[in-house]
Design goal:
Layout lengths: L10 E6 L2 H11 L4 E7 L4 E9 L2 E7 L18 E5 L2 H10 L8 E2 L6 E6 L5 E6 L2
Parallel strand pairs: 1-4, 5-8
Antiparallel strand pairs: 2-3, 3-4, 6-7, 7-8
Length: 132
């Protein structure tokens, strides 16, 4: 078997229960710039690409009546989506000013880095991970 040679994560896709609410959360509250937004008439679905970092995209999708998915951190499947920040205290304070509650900041026992969790409008677990 040949080696895949993966180089980075290209994108992460999220299906939203309320597209407008999630679009506002990710673009306005988290400050991710919108790269493109299209309505896909055949699917009655919106798709919004937001830039997390150069070459890394977060895709938001809407679909009519998407089924619920367990999203608590210990459920099987994707555990959480982590965003790197330089100063976790500044990031937590900014989220708080937007009405977003974060868990208490903890320290990763293996790396010594600080991190915390919060949730998107659908309860998707998101993490802030201090990299500075």
């Amino acid at each position: 078997m040949s080696q895949l040679l993966l180089t980075r994560i290209h994108h992460v896709a999220v299906i939203c229960s309320d597209y407008a609410r999630s679009r506002a959360f990710y673009s306005e509250t988290l400050g991710l710039p919108i790269v493109r937004e299209v309505y896909r008439e055949a699917r009655d679905s919106w798709k919004c690409d937001l830039e997390v970092a150069p070459g890394v995209t977060l895709e938001l999708f809407s679909f009519p009546a998407p089924p619920p998915r367990p999203s608590y951190p210990e459920a099987a499947g994707l555990r959480h989506l982590a965003f790197a920040v330089e100063d976790i205290e500044v990031a937590v304070r900014a989220l708080g000013e937007c009405g977003v509650a974060c868990e208490p900041v903890r320290v990763d026992e293996y790396t010594g880095q600080r991190f915390t969790f919060f949730a998107d409008p659908d309860g998707l677990p998101l993490e802030l991970y201090e990299t500075a």
